[in-house]
Amino acid sequence: MIRIQHEPFDIGALYKGLSEGSHNTGAVVSFVGRVRDFNESPEVTALSLEHYPGMTERALENVVERAQGRWEINDAIIVHRIGYMTPGDDIVAVLVSTAHRHAAFEACAFIMDFLKTSAPFWKKEHTQSGAYWVSERESDLASLKRWEQQ
Amino acid sequence: MTLTHLNERGEASMVDVSDKQSSHREAVASGRIVMQPETLKLLADGSMPKGDVLTTARIAGIQAAKRTHELIPLCHALMLSKVTVDFELDTAAHCVRVSAFCRLGGRTGVEMEALTAVSVACLTLYDMCKAVDRGMEIMDVRLEHKSGGQSGVWERKASPETVSSDTVAPVADTTDLSDKSNESPIEIRFFAELRERLGIEKLSVLPGHLSSPTLRGLKEWVKSQVDAPQALDQPRLLCAVNHDMVQGDITINPGDEVAFFPPVTGG
């Protein structure tokens, strides 16, 4: 399931939806990304998140498909928020269920790594002294490398 | 060697805290360092004896831009609001292409800063790789674009050799250009910082109005329509056609939706 929404999400409800009634699932790994009060500047007061409707969903579906090609995944959920958020708010949730834990850990990390570099979302950070668009990170691009080598 | 924490805290990519008025001064400079194909391969594989070459060269370029006034006698000290240094590994021409973008809201231009950033980034690349290749050549360090200030916008005129060899992909057969009058328009969208810099969200054009039915032709047309065409020359600008990311030049068909945007930063 892929969802782009303004509203906060309930990670407990997402977990329940993923795992309930599934008897072949031995492992669920979930990741939640949150708004930090420091990033490119030391005092981030808020974040606004923009996306490209239509393309975002397609890009996320592609990421999940690629993960399914590498690991035996029972189910996967991506929920990504857009709009205005403040430090401590949740931004994104990724949950993956599999039979065994290693696949779930890896697939969850894989999905996040590709989400960060291929899904059309953009963050703008707000501070006391003004707002700016967040730059891409070399470390995010470098994170993709480990999946190529395998 | 890892400089990840510098990135994390924003040292590698300076924060732009200025408001985005058109009076801002900006400059883009470029250059390249030509090396043996084997050297480029070592660099691409991260196997250089001195470690992470590109990250180090990027930091060097940014630092150099900030210290330009200490190097060039009559240059003012500037409060730069943004400096980016980007690299493109060109395997066909076995070189690393370097480009630097500088911006500020001050009273003097930033082309010296951009040129200094490119020069020092190239020197750092040389230093990091010289153990395996002393014959590398630093070439074509030059200003590509500047805007703001009394002299207004200056743009380097495109010449055939300025075209990067790997961005020109073969274009499909485009001989059938007859009767384009009643074809559906191409929809063009802009996102995030690019949308703000251009001041527009969407454009629409009939295929017949393009100089060629390609991404390159479309970009040319967009640049002729906007107040800040240089915003479309950002080295890391991304492009999607019909919701799929594309690279290089491709054929654009009637009814296509083409989007231009900066690197993505979700998650």
UniProtKB/TrEMBL annotation, chain A:
GO molecular function, one term: molybdopterin synthase activity
UniProt keywords, alphabetically: Molybdenum cofactor biosynthesis
Functional pathway: Cofactor biosynthesis; molybdopterin biosynthesis
Protein origin, superkingdom: Bacteria
EC number: 2.8.1.12
InterPro entries documented for this protein: MoaE_sf, Mopterin_biosynth_MoaE
Enzyme class: transferase
Pfam family, one: MoaE
Cited Gene3D superfamilies: Molybdopterin biosynthesis MoaE subunit
GO term, biological process aspect, one: Mo-molybdopterin cofactor biosynthetic process
Reactions that this protein is recorded to catalyse: 2 [molybdopterin-synthase sulfur-carrier protein]-C-terminal-Gly-aminoethanethioate + cyclic pyranopterin phosphate + H2O = molybdopterin + 2 [molybdopterin-synthase sulfur-carrier protein]-C-terminal Gly-Gly + 2 H(+)
NCBIfam families linked to this entry: PRK10678.1
Family: Belongs to the MoaE family.
Subunit structure: Heterotetramer of 2 MoaD subunits and 2 MoaE subunits. Also stable as homodimer. The enzyme changes between these two forms during catalysis.
Record's protein name: Molybdopterin synthase catalytic subunit
Source organism per UniProt: Kushneria indalinina DSM 14324
From TrEMBL, chain B:
Gene Ontology molecular-function annotations: cyclic pyranopterin monophosphate synthase activity
UniProt key word Nucleus: no
InterPro entries: Beta-grasp_dom_sf, MoaC, MoaC_bact/euk, MoaC_sf, MoCo_biosynth_MoaA/MoaC, Mopterin_CF_biosynth-C_dom, Mopterin_synth/thiamin_S_b, ThiS/MoaD-like
Assembly mode: Homohexamer; trimer of dimers.
Active site (catalytic residues): 127
Keywords, sorted A to Z: Lyase, Molybdenum cofactor biosynthesis
The protein's name in its UniProt record: Cyclic pyranopterin monophosphate synthase
Alphabetical list of Pfam families matching this protein: MoaC (PF01967), ThiS (PF02597)
Residues where substrate binds: 74-76, 112-113
E.C. designation(s): 4.6.1.17
Entries under HAMAP family matching the protein: MoaC_B
Ranges where the Molybdopterin cofactor biosynthesis C (MoaC) domain occurs: 14-149
Biological role: Catalyzes the conversion of (8S)-3',8-cyclo-7,8-dihydroguanosine 5'-triphosphate to cyclic pyranopterin monophosphate (cPMP).
Record's catalysed reaction(s): (8S)-3',8-cyclo-7,8-dihydroguanosine 5'-triphosphate = cyclic pyranopterin phosphate + diphosphate
Domain of life: Bacteria
Enzyme class per UniProt: lyase
GO biological process: Mo-molybdopterin cofactor biosynthetic process
Encoding gene (name): moaC
Organism: Kushneria indalinina DSM 14324
Family classification: Belongs to the MoaC family.
Residue ranges of the region described as Disordered: 1-23
Pathway: Cofactor biosynthesis; molybdopterin biosynthesis
